[in-house]
Every structure is written in structure tokens, then in C-alpha cells.
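Hello again, I could really use a second opinion on something today. I've been staring at a protein lately and its backbone has me curious. Can you walk me through what the C-alpha cells say about the fold? Take your time with it, there's no hurry, and the full record follows here:
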Amino acid sequence: MLNNNIEKPSAGSPQRELQWQQRLYETPGGREILGCIQCGTCSASCPLTDQMDHAPRELFALVRDGAMEEVLRSNTPWFCVSCYQCMVRCPREIPVTDIMYALKRMAAEAGIFPKGHKMPGLYKIFNQDVARYGKITGSILMGRYGLRHPVDMASKMGTGLGLLKTRRFDFTPQKMVDPRKIAALLKRKRTHIK
């Protein structure tokens, strides 16, 4: 369990960078980064490496070097599409995708995001909907996203209409029987990983 009683130094300070690094190492699978041999298999396996400012192996080198603010500002975790090709092919069996999720959580909690990237906003809305309803409803998720990014949303109207035509687009929230249980679980998990 991570120490929540640490004084909060300014972002980018060597002490803060070390705290972020330790926190990542304490997440499940986080220490596995230390075993990375920098072979580049994860980067070569990723379908979106060309969109990333740092390929996964480069990001892991930055983590080990303690450049955590640069890591958290990177767009790399936000481009991870969870295809798991990196994990399947890694000769050291490093849980790359899980580490990308941990980095997204850390960046969101620290309020550090890559400039101009829309995924952090979608990530926040997604998590709020899961906490509120126990699951997501596409129309609500995309509606809330559209309010923040109207131009981007307009370009997705064709997809939305196609989903509507095939009745794969709900307008009312689909709730679990007791969404408070999911909210309590998420709160407990956040408390545990901080």
C-alpha cells in the first residue's frame, strides 16, 4: 500500500519525480519495468507507435531515469488501445498495458495531460459514468464528450446515426441493480492505489 502522508512538493521537483516513480513501482506489475531489456518488441508490436511521442520502451527508459513528469505528460499511455500485443510478445513478460493504465491514472490524478489530446477528457467522463451507473451508456458518454469537443463530435455523427439505425445506441442510462457497490469498489481501489 502506498504512503498517502507524503508532503506534496511542487510538480517537476526531484522529490516529486521520485515519489511518482516509487508509486508506479508499487502498482501491480510496476517493478517489472526494471527488468526491461530495451529490445523494442513492445514498440514494434504496437499499432499506434507512430502516433506516440515516446514508444513504450522509450517511456520505460524515462521511468527508470526518473523523468516522471515527462512520462506523465506523454501521449503514449493515452494512445494505448489495449490490444495486448506488447504483453504477449514481451520476452520479459512485462505487463505493458497494465502499466499504461497505471500511468493514465497517475496523470489524471496529478492533472497532467498531453497538450491537445482528447483522450484524458473521455477517460474522466468514462470513469464518472462507471462510478455513477455501474457501467457506461454510449449515448451519455459521447454526449458529454461532445459538449467538450463539439467539432470532433460533429465528425462522428455518421457513426452515431449508424448505431442508432441498428438499435445499438441507448438514450437512457443502463444502470446496474445497485451502482453504489461499483462506486464503493472504485473508491476503495483509488484509496488503495494512491
